[in-house]
Q: What sequence folds into this?
């Protein structure tokens, strides 16, 4: 069976156990709980629930998911859902959020530009920059995330503002943290490779009959391109839980991540509609370049459980985030440079990117879940509210030194004298309040209906007094209703067919800024229509799903040049059609598999009134390739050896842009191959070798309208895993 933390399993049982009561037997071992279940007065056979989770026996299946706020099996979510679990992340040796998300078809990556730092994601062609969550709460801060404390990553596609509030046009990405469990179990991983050293520790200690402490730690040090590019990451996380599985459960957690990187130059350049062929082993940065970011997040959670199976979960979170960047940007090449004459003597103009910011986010969220029997039908009710207070300060540097030009073959790396001065530029302060209710009705044993509504009020104030040309404050408040509806037909426990509809909205202040035009503009609106099917095969060991979806943003902001003030009008429209297939699980006890394929068709349907905007109508909006596919599979040979590998394929794609000229640029399609060999030394120790980009393929995995960013070449890393 797929084991899950005992507290989550008891919660899942409580919300789905219609007319059931569960009584635990006393004196059970630390790693198991034995229960007797009574249904309608009849006593059933005892059931033993294991609290341990052995990665060797776990599959790549999703198990229970909390992406819909109610813990259910993935087949009971009437939308496309991909779960990248800890086993898949570990087997592939992925150490970053972005690396783990390469498993999810439909996701593409922007370079961290446009004033942003950190993970910048597109889903079905729509930005997810404001739709990243941590344990169900918004995690919009700009930083590059690490995988050391992940239990899984959940990707829900399609409009989902009813569940999460503003944003979520293409979907949401939810990071699920590791939590304390009622057992003592420890694991240490040591990973080494050329210029790379990473250590992670996962320590879970049972501290009492109903309490446990879990601590995660990480250090990562890496260098490439002759030491001109480097990363230095440190992470620490802990979760202390009391009353696990009882009527009142408390959890106290803290997460810290910081890194001091020497970044590569910000991309290459577009040249005649394609990436300029810069050598893969060279960096054009300066020795003084850096990226120094930090995240500190504290969370307190209380879960109350009633005897009838109802639960009330309340979570308070406070997070502080700092970011500071001084990096080299490659500027435009001379007009006479072509793909044919580009060479080692080509002059490369260099510029500077400097950004700094400080964010403080506070959230309070409460969810009530209960099951009732109205009119002879089972109803699973979700009701909740959330409050967010977010403060984002952006700083600017003045007196920034000028970088000298270099040539392609001679990338001078001298340090620059730092005479910069830091000045506070803008401050965005927002308050958001949301309230929502959802009902899942069992019409018959085979048919379910899902319906939900959410009302949001989002208001922000933008202080622009620190700009180089000071300007007055801007503010705006919007109130918006979001809807969600779905129907599921489940003729057997192994099959689920569904259709769903959802809406979403994007306010002008989603990314913590206004200008004179956007402050006058109401929210954009989107909708998602989807039909799909999910199957459980091979006795439930293998999950297969397919979906056909259409996402429309039908009143996108555009500047109206016919208005004297140039304000934005909601006159634009774009859509993406998607057909997806995905498989995850175990074909037999030796053979695990995870893979998917998506065909997407994105189109700009309407645009603003200017000639430049009209020129984009009918074009692909960028970062929406026509096809994507990936596959990862492993096979166990005897008792000690396991081999595996897979590929990632992305079709040709353009950067996201409002310019027809930029949309004519295309990064070529690519297929990247990875491989794994693992040897089990004994029951508690294994060693594995991961080779990423096996064929040393040159490809471009992140795109910006100004440049494509080349992805890493072949990497080889060995990992020793020890449990005790």
A:
């Amino acid at each position: 069976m797929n084991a899950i933390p005992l507290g989550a399993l008891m919660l899942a049982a409580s919300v789905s156990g219609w007319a059931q009561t569960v009584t635990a037997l006393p004196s059970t071992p630390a790693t198991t709980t034995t229960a007797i279940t009574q249904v309608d007065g009849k006593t059933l056979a005892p059931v033993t629930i294991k609290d341990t989770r052995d990665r060797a026996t776990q599959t790549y299946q999703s198990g229970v998911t909390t992406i819909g706020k109610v813990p259910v099996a993935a087949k009971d979510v009437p939308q496309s859902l991909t779960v990248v679990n800890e086993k898949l992340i570990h087997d592939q040796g992925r150490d970053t959020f972005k690396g783990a998300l390469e498993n999810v078809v439909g996701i593409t990556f922007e370079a961290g530009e446009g004033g942003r730092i950190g993970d910048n994601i597109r889903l079905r062609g729509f930005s997810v920059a404001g739709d990243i969550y941590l344990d169900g709460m918004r995690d919009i801060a700009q930083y590059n995330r690490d995988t050391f404390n992940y239990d899984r990553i959940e990707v829900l596609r399609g409009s989902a503002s009813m569940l999460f509030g503003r944003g979520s046009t293409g979907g949401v990405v939810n990071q699920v943290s590791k939590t304390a469990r009622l057992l003592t179990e420890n694991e240490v991983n040591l990973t080494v490779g050329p210029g790379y050293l990473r250590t992670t520790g996962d320590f879970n200690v049972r501290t009492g009959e109903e309490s446990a402490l879990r601590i995660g730690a990480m250090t990562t040090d890496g260098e490439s391109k002759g030491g001109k590019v480097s990363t230095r990451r440190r992470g620490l996380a802990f979760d202390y839980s009391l009353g696990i599985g009882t009527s009142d459960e408390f959890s106290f957690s803290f997460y810290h991540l910081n890194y001091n990187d020497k970044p590569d130059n910000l991309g290459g350049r577009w040249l005649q509609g394609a990436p300029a062929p810069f050598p893969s082993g060279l960096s054009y940065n300066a020795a003084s370049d850096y990226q120094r970011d930090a995240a500190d997040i504290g969370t307190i959670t209380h879960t109350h459980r009633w005897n009838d199976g109802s639960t009330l979960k309340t979570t308070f979170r406070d997070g502080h985030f700092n970011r500071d960047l001084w990096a080299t940007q490659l500027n435009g090449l001379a007009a006479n440079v072509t793909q044919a004459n580009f060479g080692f003597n080509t002059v490369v103009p260099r510029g500077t990117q400097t950004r700094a910011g400080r964010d403080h986010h506070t959230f309070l969220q409460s969810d009530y879940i209960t099951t009732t029997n109205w009119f002879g039908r089972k109803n699973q009710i979700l009701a909740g509210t959330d409050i967010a207070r977010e403060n984002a300060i952006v700083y600017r540097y003045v007196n920034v030194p000028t970088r000298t030009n270099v040539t392609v073959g001679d990338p001078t790396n001298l340090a620059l004298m730092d005479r910069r001065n830091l000045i506070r530029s803008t401050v965005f302060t927002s308050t958001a309040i949301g309230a929502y209710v959802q009902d899942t009705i069992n019409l018959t044993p085979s048919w379910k209906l899902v319906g939900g509504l959410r009302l949001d009020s989002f208001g922000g104030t933008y202080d622009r007094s620190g700009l180089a040309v000071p300007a007055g404050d801007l503010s705006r408040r919007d109130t918006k209703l979001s809807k969600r509806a779905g129907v599921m037909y489940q003729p057997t426990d192994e099959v689920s067919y569904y259709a769903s509809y959802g809406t979403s909205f994007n306010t002008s202040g989603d990314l913590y800024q206004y200008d004179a035009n956007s402050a006058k503009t109401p929210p954009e609106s989107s909708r998602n229509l989807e039909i799909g099917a999910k199957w459980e095969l091979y006795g439930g060991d293998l999950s297969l799903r397919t979906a056909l979806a259409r996402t429309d943003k039908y009143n996108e902001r555009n500047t109206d040049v016919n208005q004297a003030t140039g304000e934005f009008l909601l006159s634009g429209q774009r859509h993406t059609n998607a057909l997806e297939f995905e498989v995850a699980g175990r074909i037999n006890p030796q053979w695990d598999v995870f893979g998917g394929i998506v065909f997407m068709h994105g189109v700009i349907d309407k645009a603003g009134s200017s000639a430049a905007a009209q020129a984009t109508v009918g074009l692909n909006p960028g970062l929406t390739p026509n096809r994507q596919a990936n596959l990862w599979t492993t096979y166990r040979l005897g008792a000690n050896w396991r081999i595996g590998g897979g590929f990632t394929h992305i079709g040709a794609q353009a950067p996201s842009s409002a310019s027809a000229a930029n949309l004519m640029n295309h990064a070529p399609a690519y297929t990247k191959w990875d491989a794994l060999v693992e040897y089990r030394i004994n029951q508690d120790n294994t060693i594995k070798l991961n080779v990423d980009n096996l064929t040393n393929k040159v490809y471009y995995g992140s795109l910006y309208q100004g440049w494509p960013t080349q992805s890493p070449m072949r990497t080889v890393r060995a990992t020793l895993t020890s449990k005790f």
